[in-house]
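To fix ideas at the outset, we first show an illustrative case, written as a sequence plus integers encoding its fold:
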Amino acid sequence: MIEASKKLMCVFVDCDWGKKNEDLSTKYKVQGYPTVTFLDPEGKEVGELGGRDATTVAAQITEIAKKHSKAAFESFEKAAGVAKEEKKPVLYLFVKPGVNSSIAAALADPANKDLVEKFVMAQGELVKGNADAKTLAITDGALLVLDPGSDLAKDKVILKLTGKKTSKEVRKELEGALKKFAEGAPK
């Protein structure tokens, strides 16, 4: 089930029994808690968790991920190859397993879809043995923008975001990073 869940971007929403995020509870017709709803990149509901046993959950996640997600690369090296061809920067999200990330939620926000598509996405879990995290000295959740034409090094980072950020804040920072990349990108 853990391997299957790596294929999705998880966003945890605290609804506090209808007192918080009531707009989302209403939109997705939440009747009780916990509710697990699967959304496509545009925010359209594509399924709700059926069973609760590990095998059923893993199978459902795998099926939905195949149909509705554009997979993120699992390393800078893999993302950089595609990014060089597409002349895009790499957007590298580092997440701690089981920890909510406002930055991940901002990337999943349908209002930012057009912007996120201007990057090649990579995602890495902050676990022992993650070579990219070690090279970049990443110890906590972070979002980086990197030039695919440079070596992976912490002094080559175009943008580094950490902490809690709103969707609008992330958008503004990514727009600035795209501008920096365009100004310094080889023509």
Summary: The chain has eight helices and six strands. The chain has two domains: 2-68, 76-184. The domain at 76-184 is CATH 3.40.30.10 (Glutaredoxin). The CA atoms of residues 23 and 132 lie 38 Å apart.
